[in-house]
Design brief:
The structure is a single chain. Helices cover about 35% and strands about 20% of the residues. It is an alpha+beta fold and about 550 residues long. It has three domains: about 10-185, no CATH class; about 230-255 and about 435-545, Immunoglobulin-like, CATH 2.60.40.650; about 285-430, Oxidoreductase, molybdopterin-binding domain (Sulfite Oxidase, Chain A, domain 2), CATH 3.90.420.10. The protein has a five-stranded mixed beta sheet with strand order 2-1-10-5-6. The longest helix is centred in the first third of the chain and has 37 residues, at about 150-185. The radius of gyration is 29 Å and the shape is globular. The N and C termini lie far apart (about 80 Å). Bound molecules: the ligand Nc1nc2c(c(=O)[nH]1)N[C@H]1C(S)=C(S)[C@@H](COP(=O)(O)O)O[C@H]1N2 and molybdenum atom. Molybdenum atom binds near residues 269, 317, 319, 404 and 405.
């Protein structure tokens, strides 16, 4: 039989494959342009839109399930999705666009039409710029994005052209190869080859499936030991008057967090899927504007010349679980936000909030009263060093008592507003006031540890209230039936976590260790377990250890 025409299925399949390869290359180019020249990153835009659609509790659940790497997996999935969409576009284009009959390729003279590649690029460019981006809230051709319309128009055009032309190239090549194979293969050979391909695909999918399940199961097993559980200690929720802190001689217990977290050990959280902004001090500007009489702009040199103050402060991410790692402490140096606002003249009647704008399309707000508190700073230095890039260079907000989310990094704008602005995470269902919930963590021993029976050891960890200090930490070795008061290390300020320790000589057997804290106002840590979304986690950190 002489074949002169590809079947519809063959056309779709070859287009799909060519689209996939071209899509992977175009996606790589897109990430490269985004990282180096400020081009658009569609996975980033799409990811941001997806989390906006996702209820905070779902987001949180996934975060718990997968852990701190959730953001990266999420990005990889979107990336794979984008490549599959490219493949699908390839398949459909191959059906819709004029494809010359196979016979005409026989002499390798007539190539699949290059103009089809250009047409495809143009269609995609318009579709993404006029439909997809506005749907995600990024505006027509990215007008709402920090990179702006021009960069979006241009980088999208380059990415689209790369895809369209590469697609045509691979499609040609595939059809050509198919034609050559027809010349040398019998019908049985072809059937066998396609069977083999299917088998390989099936096996590949099975391996991926089993591996995914394995990873999830492993995560589940390893995370099971550290969850917060209810112990119903019927204590009062407030102790009046508050306990007097038991500061004492403090031994340096191995495994206990150091009081000050070094800059490279300090936890890092950001919404950015690919990379965090790198801001050049030379071109950076901070604008103070909005409902003020004298808006102004500062350069890096100008802001560095203003009087700074030092402040010890710990931070915690709202998505930190009880006992979790997203909590650190540093010595910061910065300018009170109140000073910066005072320089902007009079604040208008009716102004209620201050919005912090950042270079990464992130913004959040705090109430004006909070903004004017003396401990709310625009930080420029961290632990006696220039603020590191990952922590917001050149400038970030510090707002004690409120979760890390509002400690906006890479700020470029301070705007006084008279409306109830909702920030990046608030649009995704998280708390707006976001006060830190009193928490405590056992650093050592680790859950699941086997200790030496009847040998002296320590139970030790940290407790954190935001800006209310810590007056007492209680530890239970019997799952919450009885409690002992731990020794506290006197902290450098009421805005930091407090280190605590308790000597212990465990008897042989299993022990359930629990910790709870009381703040300087006498508030007792909330024993009822709650996941991080939407207000921050609660419950008591509980671990199981064995002594033998
Ligand atoms: N511009 C910007 N600021 C941001 C974020 C962000 O994604 N972009 N993430 C916030 C969150 S959720 C937290 S917990 C803190 C973390 O600060 P760190 O990385 O210095 O610990 O930064 C906050 N500031
Ligand atoms: Mo956070």
């Amino acid at each position: 039989m002489k074949i002169t025409q590809l079947s519809r299925k063959q056309r779709f399949n070859s287009g799909f494959l060519a689209g996939l390869v071209a899509g992977i290359l175009a996606t790589a180019l897109m990430l490269l342009l985004s990282a180096t020249l400020g081009g658009i990153s569609l996975p980033e835009v799409f990811g941001s839109a997806l989390t906006q659609l996702m209820p905070a509790s779902v987001f949180d659940y996934l975060h718990q399930l997968i852990g701190g790497d959730a953001k990266h997996y999420f990005f990889y999935i979107i990336l794979i999705g984008q490549c599959l969409v490219f493949a699908l576009i390839g398949g459909l284009a191959s059906l819709a666009l004029p494809l010359p009959p196979l016979a005409s390729l026989r002499d390798e003279q007539e190539q699949w039409l290059w103009p089809a590649g250009l047409l495809l690029a143009l269609l995609l460019w318009l579709l993404v710029g006029l439909v997809f981006l506005p749907l995600t809230g990024a505006g027509i051709f990215g007008a709402q994005l920090n990179i702006g319309t021009f960069n979006t128009l241009l980088s999208l055009a380059v990415d689209g052209l790369a895809f369209g032309l590469l697609f045509v190239f691979f499609q040609n090549w595939l059809i050509m190869r198919y034609w050559h194979s027809l010349g040398t293969m019998t019908a049985e050979d072809m059937l066998e080859a396609s069977e083999n391909r299917r088998q390989i695909l099936r096996r590949g999918l099975a391996v991926v499936g089993v591996a995914t399940l394995g990873v999830l199961a492993w995560r589940f097993i390893t995370s099971a030991g550290t969850t917060a559980t209810t112990i119903v200690p019927r204590v009062k929720s407030k102790i009046i008057p508050p306990p007097t802190p038991r500061y004492g001689t403090f031994s340096s217990v191995p495994g206990l967090s150091s009081e000050i977290t070094s800059n490279d050990q300090y936890y890092v959280v950001s919404k950015n899927l690919v990379s965090d902004p790198t801001v050049a001090a030379s071109s950076w500007q901070l604008k103070v504007y909005g409902k003020v009489t004298q808006p102004y702009t500062l350069t890096y040199d100008q802001i560095m010349a203003l009087p700074r103050k030092q402040q010890y402060e710990s931070m915690m991410c709202i998505s930190n679980e009880v006992g979790g790692p997203y909590m650190s402490n540093a010595l910061w140096e910065g300018i009170p936000l109140a000073d910066l606002l005072t320089r902007a003249g009079k604040i208008a009647q009716g102004a209620s909030k201050v919005v912090l704008h950042a270079t990464d399309d992130y913004a959040d707000s705090i109430h004006l009263t909070k903004a004017l508190e003396p401990t709310t700073l625009v930080a420029l230095r961290m632990n006696d060093a220039t603020l590191p890039q990952g922590h917001g260079f050149p400038a970030r907000l510090l707002v004690p008592g409120i979760y890390g989310m509002k400690h906006v990094k890479w700020i470029t704008g301070i705007e006084v507003v008279d409306n109830d602005f909702q920030g990046y995470w608030q649009q995704r269902g998280w708390s707006d006031p976001a006060p830190i919930r009193l928490t405590s963590r056992i650093d050592t021993p680790l859950t699941g540890a086997t200790l030496k029976a009847n040998k002296d050891t320590y139970i030790a960890g940290v407790a954190f209230s935001g800006n209310k200090g810590i007056s007492e930490v209680d530890v239970s070795m019997d799952g919450g039936k009885t409690w002992s008061v731990a020794t506290l290390k006197q902290p450098p300020s009421n805005l930091t976590w407090v280190l605590w320790e308790l000597p212990w000589k465990p008897a042989a057997g299993n022990h359930t260790l629990v910790v709870r804290a009381v703040d300087m106002e006498g508030n007792v840590q909330d024993p009822s377990p709650a996941p991080p979304a939407p207000d921050g986690s609660s419950g008591y950190h509980t671990i199981a250890v064995m002594a033998q």
